[in-house]
Amino acid sequence: MTALTLSTSGAATLRADALVVGVAKAAGSKAGGLVVAPGAEAVDKAFDGKLATVLETLGASGAEGEVTKLPAPSGLKAPVVIAVGLGPVPAKDDAYDAEALRRAAGSAARALKGSKKAGFALPTESAEDAGAVAEGALLGAYAFTAYQGGENKLAPKGAKSGKDAKLPLGEVALLGGKPRDKAFKAAAERAVAVAEEINRARDLINTPPNDLYPESFAAVATAAGKEHGIKVQVLDEKALVKGGFGGLLGVGQGSTHGPRLVKLSYTHPKAEKTLALVGKGITYDSGGISLKPAGHNETMKCDMAGAAAVFAAVVSASRLGLQVNVTGWLALAENMPSGNATRPGDVLRMYSGKTVEVLNTDAEGRLVLADALTRASEEKPDAIVDVATLTGAMVLALGNRTFGVMANDDAFRTSIHEIAEEVGEASWPMPLPADLRKGMDSPTADIANMGERMGGGLVAGLFLQEFVGEGIAWAHLDIAGPAFHEGAPYGYTPKGGTGSAVRTLVRLAERTAAGDLG
């Protein structure tokens, strides 16, 4: 993990491999017209006040996330200056948007791969700004290297092996961060805790399914619980059979790796509210007997991203000492086809007692979540939020960068949406139309796991709602789009697992602790 320090050094005197500064598009400028952002005054002075002119000459536009490298002049200790675009200059008296700072810092950190230390002289006029820069830099510096480092004896002579690959940026020195200011110090500490847990979630999502399966995921959660004072309970196959968890057992019975239900309990002695977070943890999804077509299996190690997000959020709450009780439920199973697998047409008796006719074994996430939602409801939390890479329909509706938010309470759905936007996670409120429920009527069981094809993401939400306890506020986050990024990295978003929804869940816990959600 990249280290973070609040440096007391000035930009001109800091000894580092590079200095990162921000540039923005001048107001009303269509082509050219750069403005050097606050925090970079000493760097601009070293360029005789002509940094913006030099960057314009090099073709920089100030566009968000654009990175321009140039050699530093003699007045700076660092040999390289990296100018990163912040987008348009804010209107008078407005600060730079936190998400713009986060993405700029992430872009710069990615560009500094292989460097030992870099000074970030981006705008940090407030503690919130400093936290955004720190979080963006730590997330942008992420790299998944666990399976790199072995020497490839078949590679051509002189070719790079994993051990020769560039490591992530070693240290982020946040300039202008006021290390003696309590608010700045707290913002930095929060950024480190949340970023480290997001990156842990990314590691889990990126881990190959031959190494990450329900039992091994449960072991990771157990170890983290011991480290951070979180109580962990793991229900194995025998306990699930005894408890009647038909959804989890039905999905997992086709695999040699048995299912697990993991309960993570973080409690605070002064807490007045309890949040329950439920995560879909399909460690690999082949589709089961309803096998996925070719081309759709390769990234299905990411189908446990919801459980990873819940796990990271609970650990973050503990590390931050939030005055709220947070219980995480990880519904873990591997969905495989075999002679023991659930067949289309089978009927499962769920933990709630309801029976479900399985029309499609690739609609398995809702089955494991249903059992976990029922079990979470028994403890009467103030609110339940489930997170899942649930439906391709939601990706078709909202694209690859936005998750859908459904809820049984309009005010709660609005709060979740606002929180997500506040922390920089794109989301959109979605309805739960009652007329779509009829499509899941079954002549054989209480409900079928499939309904109408159109509006499939909403149908899945309606299915889940059936298993939420009466009178409990509940929201469902379908993160199928943003959970796993297959394109080129951008901002602080890497290729592969992203850690989507962690920041939303952590901010929800913070707001609940502060009494802001009623």
Describe the model.
- With 518 residues, this protein is an alpha/beta fold.
- 32% of the residues lie in helices and 21% in strands.
- The chain contains 14 helices and 20 strands.
- It has helices at 41-46, 51-57, 98-111, 127-140, 182-206, 214-228, 237-243, 246-252, 305-320, 365-377, 392-398, 410-423, 456-465, 502-513, and strands spanning 3-7, 18-25, 34-36, 67-71, 80-88, 117-121, 171-175, 231-235, 260-266, 274-285, 325-335, 347-349, 355-357, 383-388, 403-407, 427-429, 447-448, 473-478, 484-485, 496-497.
- It has an eight-stranded mixed sheet with strand order 8-9-11-10-14-18-15-16, sandwiched between helices. Strands 1, 2, 3, 4, 5, 6 and 7 form a seven-stranded mixed sheet that branches.
- Strand 6, helix 4 and strand 7 form a beta-alpha-beta unit.
- Helix 4 runs parallel beside helix 5 (182-206), helix 10 packs parallel to helix 13 (456-465) and helix 12 (410-423) crosses helix 14.
- The longest helix has 25 residues, at 182-206.
- The radius of gyration is 24 Å and the shape is elongated.
- It starts with a strand and ends in a 5-residue tail after the last helix.
- 54% of the residues are buried.
